[in-house]
Amino acid sequence: MHFAADCLVGESVQDPLKYFNNNVKNSLRLIEITEQFHVKQIVFSSSAAVYGEPEKIPISEDHPCAPTNPYGETKWIFEQVLQAFREAGKLNYISLRYFNAAGADPEGELGEDHFQETHLIPLVIKAALDRTSVPVFGTDYDTPDGTCIRDYVHVTDLAHAHILALGKLNQSKFSGTYNLGNGNGYSVRQVIETVKKVTGRKVAAINSPRRPGDPARLVASSQKFKEEAGWIPKYADLETIVKTAYDWHREHPKGYED
What we know:
The chain is of the alpha/beta class. The chain has helices spanning 9-14, 16-36, 70-87, 120-130, 155-171, 188-199, 223-229, 238-251, and strands at residues 41-47, 92-98, 100-102, 133-137, 149-154, 176-180, 185-187, 204-208, 217-218.
């Protein structure tokens, strides 16, 4: 299972060399090693960023890929690498295009704790807990409230999807690409309001300029994976996703340091 990558859209625009070196060149090195050790199956962590600015919502797997940032471009390039190796008879793969991974382990053991956090839900939760503010990057998008809309999928549901993907590879000589999302889009302002509801705290939002490379809307159709692999998300609504994340951050105010 290939999870390794740099994954910050804004950083990829500012430092594309870092992203092509790590996400493409190092992934090619991984392919070389799989050949050396006769590994014939790969589950690849791809991204909704391969689609770019969508032509239609929800996005299905046959939607054209036209990334708007180097991060998405690197994921799309490696998907094509996997397909080329598949056509050469060297391996089988499943590429899982995540939408916005979010939430925390419902049992409280694992949570999201990045150095220099950029993900929206933990940023808003930390703002609520610390009584600080959170930036809203772009308020003039063509969306109902002017802020970006994203599809949030719980990390536990993503983990289950990987197990199902591995099982599918083990059962047959198969390759394919699947979206992983809930099919529901929530704006930045809706996420902030949900955090306020879950935490019972105020959150100050500061309107800020758009970030380069951010599409206005990204909402998945995951019907294909549900039908072909039996995937059923258990934590599909935004309030549940936020609550699991909040419970973890509340118990770990200093992140993994405590």
